[in-house]
Amino acid sequence: MDEKREKQIEAMKKGPLCGTVRYFVKWSVQAAVIGVLAGVVGGSFGLGVAFATRTWQSESRTLFLLPVIGVVIVFLYRFAHEENNRGTNMVIEATSSDTKVTVATAPLIYVSTILSHFGAASVGREGAALQIGGVLGSLTARAMRLDEKDRRIAVMCGMSACFGAVFGTPLAAAVFSMEVAVTGTIHYAAMVPCLLAALAGSAIAGRMGLAAERFEVGAIPAFDL
After folding, report:
1. Cα–Cα distance between 87 and 42 in angstroms, integer?
2. Helices marked H in 14-95 — which ranges?
3. If pLDDT is split at 50, 70 and 90, which confidence band does 2 have?
4. Structure pTM?
């Protein structure tokens, strides 16, 4: 009877329910780690961009520093041997292929984006957030020695967490990261990890004082024939 009972227990451990529970617990921990890390970095990045924006808005003459800022950014990329860095495209490809994300991508895009905003350059934060988050997710995957499949999910978690931290939109961040893995489809296996990471990242950034983005809708005309 004992041997039969042991076989039943082993079968239960290998069942779909136990597999789902193990998957949920594993990715809850890993997504939380990635979310906290990306939340801290993404939050500081968002605060840096906000400070740079306030600076040029109050002192428009920083615009004349833009050529110097451009030279500095080129020097930084050349110094790091990242002249051929494909930025956001490289990170997106890493979610669906064996493309490796270079570690230097995160600090380079972090610094160059803030400097660009300081000079009133017409650049956004979306691509920067994805690059920073993708690198952090990839580094975490290496540290945890995850396999190739899990590494891709970790990269998506990093993207979700950093995007959610910078913009304060965890749900949109999670869905967006799942969509970019394969154009036209959603990577459902990453849904829970990405959402948990995005929520953690957004919460951490909020604690750091980074306000979520809010866009007011103007006057809506009356609907009639």
Report:
1. 17
2. 16-58, 66-79, 88-94
3. low
4. 0.82
